[in-house]
């Protein structure tokens, strides 16, 4: 996680200083020079469970280990709704067109200071991956395994809603699929 060291307004070093908020005194990164406060609010991230030709598409980022596949994700941009953002991300990353989408849920991902807004999308078109992605796989619902982190919980909730009890990677399996990433 990135730590802010200097004020973006006046370049004074930021310090952890006590601050009165509605909930009481909390420490925040503050600038003693101009009073700027770095709130460190979570970043909204969009995720898509992409249903394509009756299967679920999981993709592998070019920087990830060979066994690691996950949902299509991306950052929400200023001026767009979450629905517009996930349709844009799916198009940018896979070249697929979103025909319908439904909210699955909202999930915290504290390790990355993110809040994940997950959707189920039904898509059409021809898969052409962006340079950011190196591979994809299509899975039938019973073949899907969930990972014990933000988007994995979204996938599990979506599977449950469709009458499938989710299966999670064991700790060993998850470590193997992540090997080289940490």
TrEMBL record:
Residues 40-161 form the Nudix hydrolase domain. Gene3D superfamilies: Nucleoside Triphosphate Pyrophosphohydrolase. One of its GO terms (molecular function) is hydrolase activity. PROSITE patterns: NUDIX, NUDIX_BOX. Keywords: Hydrolase. Pfam families: NUDIX (PF00293). Its cofactor is Mg(2+). It comes from the Bacteria. This is NUDIX hydrolase. It comes from Ottowia beijingensis.
